[in-house]
Amino acid sequence: MKKTFPPILARICEHLNLNKNQDIASALGVAQPTVINWGERNDIPLDRAVEFSKRERISLDWLITGEGPKYKSEGLTPTIPATTSPDETALLDAYRAADEAGRAALLITAKAMARKA
């Protein structure tokens, strides 16, 4: 049987392609019991939803209600500034396509490389 989550957590799972409390907790920077508590209450703190929405560039309305476009841009895909180089765009595409472990590895690598520069 597939696990079900409360609506907001379900949309976070959908957006990040996650299905475990531990993975959700890691993605949101909280402890796993916190996610379980949110699930039991069928709610998450508004500040966490706002923070997640901004970080992921998704519509807060969509995250909270499930209605309207998922992304803040006029279309249904996130926008990338015109000043982004092809390499930056490729890196962003790779990050978005990666699973949670891949995203974590990309961030660790990018931060380590930035310190060397």
Automatic annotation (TrEMBL):
Residues 8-71 form the Bacteriophage CI repressor N-terminal domain. It comes from Candidatus Magnetaquiglobus chichijimensis. It comes from the Bacteria. InterPro entries: Lambda_DNA-bd_dom_sf (IPR010982), Phage_CI_N (IPR010744). This is Bacteriophage CI repressor N-terminal domain-containing protein. Pfam families: Phage_CI_repr. The lineage of its organism: Bacteria, Pseudomonadati, Pseudomonadota, Magnetococcia, Magnetococcales.
